[in-house]
Amino acid sequence: MRRVLTLLGATAAGFTSVVALHGTPGKAGPIVRSAPTTTTTTPKPGAPTTTAPAGPGQATAIGPLENYSYGVMSVKVVIANHHIVGLHVEKLQTLDSYSQQLASYAVPILKAEVLKAQGIRINAVTGATYTSEAYAYSIQGALDKLRFK
Amino acid sequence: MITRAEPVMGTVVSFLVDPADLDSAHVESLLDAAAAELHRLDDRFSTWKPDSELSRLRRGEVAAPSSLMREVMERCEAARDTTAGYFDPWALAGGFDPTGLVKGWAAERALAVLVDGGVTEALVNAGGDICVSPGSTYDVGVQHPSVRDAFCAVIRVDSAAATSGVYERGEHLTNPFGGEVAAVSATVVGGRLAEADAFATALAVGGAAVLALLERIPGLEGFFITSEGALYRTSGMDLGPGSVANA
User: Is A146 in CB contact (< 8 Å) with chain B?
Assistant: First the structure.
C-alpha cells in the first residue's frame, strides 16, 4: 500500500496527506468496505463527480484527472462516517510521450537447444501458453528429462 | 535435486528442491505437506468447485468470509490499487474472481511450508507463476507466445516471476476499462509472487499504461508482447543471454 501512496503522492499531494492521516489501508484495524461495484466511469477532465450515497453515511466521489509523470489519472474515494474507507485509481491514461519513448523490440526467439549448447540451464518455464494443462505437463516433463537424466 | 509435479488448481505445480543436507524422506514429507496446502487452498478458492467458499461467496451465500478469504480480498484490493485498476477481480463476469492472484499466493504459501521445514533452496512453479526460496536464484525461460519450442526471454529469478496473457484456450482476460487487451503475453519479475501475478495480468491488459506504473516501483520489472510481435519492457528488465532486446 505504501507504493500506492507514493504513486498518489506524485499526483495529488493534498489528497495523499488526508489518506496518510487515516493510516495504512489493508493493515489497520477493521476495514469497512462497500460492496464492490463493477461499473467503471470515465470522469471528465476537471470535473469531479459525486454519486449518491451507497450506504448509510457513505459517499463516493471521483476526483478530476490529475497529471502524473507518465500521464493523467483520477482517483475515486469512498467516505463513510467521515473516514476514507475506499481509495481506487479510477482512470489512468498514459501520456502519448511515454508510449512514444518506449522502444519496441522484435520478440527474441531463443531455441532451447541453442541455449543448452551455450551452457544456459533453464530451471523452470513461465509463459502465457503455459496454462494449457497438457502443454504444461509436456514441457515440464521435457525439462525434467533435460535436467535430471 | 528432488522434484514433484502436483496437478492442482487447474494446472500443474512443480517443485524443485535442493535437499542440501536434509534427509530426503524429510523433504518428501515437506512436499506432501506443501501439496496438501495447495489442495486445501484449491478447495477454498476454486471457481469450478460449487462447494468452495469462493463459489458460495460468488453466489452470495457467505455472510462472514473466512480469514483466508479476507486476506485474499485485501490483497486483491491492494493489487487493484497498485495496478491502477487494471487488475480488478471485481470487474469480471460472474462476480469476484481472485484467481489471477490466488495461484501465486498459494504457491508462496506452499513454498513457505518447505522453507519453514528447513529447505534453503527451492523453486515452486504454479503453472508459470514462480517463486523461489530467499537467497536462491534460478534461470527461468519465458515461453515464446507464438513459437512453440522457443523462449522469448531467459530471466534470472531470485524472488518471483509471473506471466499472463491471452491463452491458447481463448481470451481469458478482461479490460476493466472496457478497451482492448494490450498484450498476448506479459511477464513481471520481482517482489512477492501474489503481487507479480496480479501485475502480470494488469500488464497484459493495460500494456504501456501499466508498464509506466511498473517503471516507478522499485524491485519490479516487466515486459509485454503485442499481437503484432512487438516487445516493450521496463528500463531495468533483463531479457537474458542471446536476446537482442538487451542491446
Answer: no
